[in-house]
């Protein structure tokens, strides 16, 4: 995974709450077996509307999505994270994320930043006033800054460290595999097995 | 220290717990399907990793498989590629797979319990948010993303931070015609789609204890719609009776051992929940959604609310948008809403009891002439069982379609979709914009309401017949 230390870019204001993963990428776009190419499905239903913010020229360079509350509810599809990444987003800011979406994003290296709703609304106004406004999201200091504003955000130390080092979770767990083995030895024998059919 | 049920199961699966890092939890059962797994297997191959415990992993084809002509190759080439990819991956990594046409094929959350693989006190994960269904057995079960699928395949564990716990007490008894679907829709309307966020929900109380296993699964299934990742119910005699003699249930002495452990799986009487809410089952009536998230629900006897009925500005604008999308006017009685398609199926309400309940109402009656009713059993076994009981005939004689098992119109990934502007009464779990097909409009209902609606053509309860 690529290291994430800091990102500076312009932003796109998505002024809707409860944007579920079916909106981020509808199910018909989920049939690919790779991790790339999902950008064409991003917000597919809304993109047919020329007035939809993603279609506006002034936001075409945006790499930070500033969304309404409860972003990413619904289906667990990680494709929603990939669609955002494939499209070019590095950061999503919202006042509240659905649990699974947030977990998925932080595992895949898309930084999700939680700010208060009033900070989100201030950001929306600032972006609408100046679409090319440069916003800096810094993991080292845990600050979102633009103009002369600097807003701090929370992220647990462990996740921050993992993102800044670009470490993948599986590698980290495999380092502790002896503990997994110890656990397996003590596991109750009556627990079900799926009996693999090897061919 | 007194513990809640969720905390007990959590603690019994701790591989490692250290401050400053998430807990590492052992996973007892990993369920897999075609949509969220290909990239995970790819990741394993790239890193030259094996599946650690193929014997704790099982796969089925459900999300995008057709529900007609299943003996023919899948017509849509992209869907076919995804299903073929699953088949190749399962073969390469030695994972048991139930393919289309196999008697154990079906929606992953219907298949696990049916085989007896879902048992109390287990940790169960799947790359699907409705994994919470399995919580009905007192298992800790939750949906995961594809990166996590890969993590579980490689290590049989998951790093997770411990959620908080919420008790949802449903006391009293349900009136006739009111089902567990109505309970959960009412809970979500009460706490909102974000209300369960960060919590594991435990459903308790006399109304919950009185429910069958299948009805309990319907409730736990929709925990995610309240924002919670998992929901569970303490196992009891109903649970044990359901499990006894299932293909993968423990046998002989193992059964006794398991039973001894399972019997202790309940929240201690002095355990503290981080939050507690209470619902009176006697007050409940059939519940339906009017909007575009599962929290936008109301009693079937009610009228469509006005955005001004809400105080939170977010909810006001969400209601305004929902009314436009749904093409509905505030003040209209729910029962006046005209439906085009009735969908009976999904991992929420596609089990045998659901089909029986709907068939009982449909029996000897006709589906309204301008209504299309699709009945899609949750699994091939459910379909066989229904046919053995003659339910298929009742549906067919009434003019409904009798399909093969799969997710079908629950998410419209296969050809089973609503046309733009079409309106459905659906026993599934999500009424998001376009969920059942681009421009489609969904009202979530119980199987009883689905059946009555099919006959009358407008949202109805059996009492209206
Ligand atoms: S039936 Fe619907 S909710 Fe259930 S697993 Fe399938 S798509 Fe998901």
* Bound small-molecule species: iron/sulfur cluster
Count of helical stretches of chain B: 16
Strand order of the largest sheet of chain B: 5-4-3-6-7
How helix-rich are the residues of chain B, as a percent range? Answer: 25-40%
User: Largest beta sheet of chain A, briefly?
Assistant: 4 strands, antiparallel
Largest sheet of chain B: 5 strands, parallel
**Overall radius of gyration of chain B:** 21 Å
Keywords:
heterodimer, A: 199 residues, alpha/beta, 4-stranded antiparallel sheet, 4-stranded parallel sheet, 8 helices, 8 strands, globular, B: 465 residues, 5-stranded parallel sheet, binds iron/sulfur cluster
How are the elements arranged and paired?
The complex is a heterodimer of chains A (199) and B (465).
Chain A lengths: L5 E4 L1 E4 L6 H4 L19 H4 L16 E4 L11 H9 L3 E4 L4 H10 L2 E4 L2 H13 L5 E4 L4 E4 L2 E4 L4 H9 L3 H6 L2 H10 L13
Parallel strand pairs in A: 2-3, 3-4, 4-5
Antiparallel strand pairs in A: 1-6, 6-7, 7-8
Chain B lengths: L4 H7 L2 E3 L6 E4 L2 E4 L5 H10 L9 E4 L16 H17 L2 E3 L9 H8 L7 E4 L13 E4 L2 H10 L1 E4 L3 E8 L8 H12 L7 E6 L1 H4 L3 H9 L8 E3 L4 H7 L8 H12 L11 E6 L6 E3 L7 E3 L13 H14 L14 E4 L1 H4 L2 H11 L9 E4 L4 H9 L2 H8 L2 E2 L20 E4 L14 E4 L2 H10 L9
Parallel strand pairs in B: 3-4, 3-6, 4-5, 6-7, 9-10, 9-12, 10-11, 15-16, 15-18, 16-17, 18-19
Antiparallel strand pairs in B: 1-2, 2-8, 13-14
Helix pairs in contact in B: 2-5, 6-8, 13-15, 13-16
Bound molecules: iron/sulfur cluster (SF4).
How does this structure look, described?
The complex is a heterodimer of chains A (199) and B (465). By secondary structure, chain A is an alpha/beta fold. Chain A has helices at residues 21-24, 44-47, 79-87, 99-108, 117-129, 157-165, 169-174, 177-186; strands at residues 6-9, 11-14, 64-67, 91-94, 111-114, 135-138, 143-146, 149-152. In chain A, strands 1-6-7-8 form a four-stranded antiparallel sheet, with no helix packed on it. The radius of gyration of chain A is 19 Å and the shape is globular. The mean pLDDT of chain A is 94. Chain B has helices at residues 5-11, 38-47, 77-93, 108-115, 146-155, 180-191, 206-209, 213-221, 237-243, 252-263, 313-326, 346-349, 352-362, 380-388, 391-398, 447-456; strands spanning 14-16, 23-26, 29-32, 57-60, 96-98, 123-126, 140-143, 157-160, 164-171, 199-204, 230-232, 275-280, 287-289, 297-299, 341-344, 372-375, 401-402, 423-426, 441-444. Chain B has a five-stranded parallel sheet, sandwiched between helices. Chain B has a five-stranded parallel sheet with strand order 17-16-15-18-19, with helices on one face. A four-stranded parallel sheet of chain B has the order 11-10-9-12. Chain B is globular, with a radius of gyration of 21 Å. The N and C termini of chain B lie far apart (54 Å). The model of chain B has no long low-confidence stretch (mean pLDDT 96). Chains A and B meet through helix 4, helix 7 and helix 8 of A and helix 2, helix 3, helix 5, helix 10 and helix 11 of B. Bound molecules: iron/sulfur cluster.
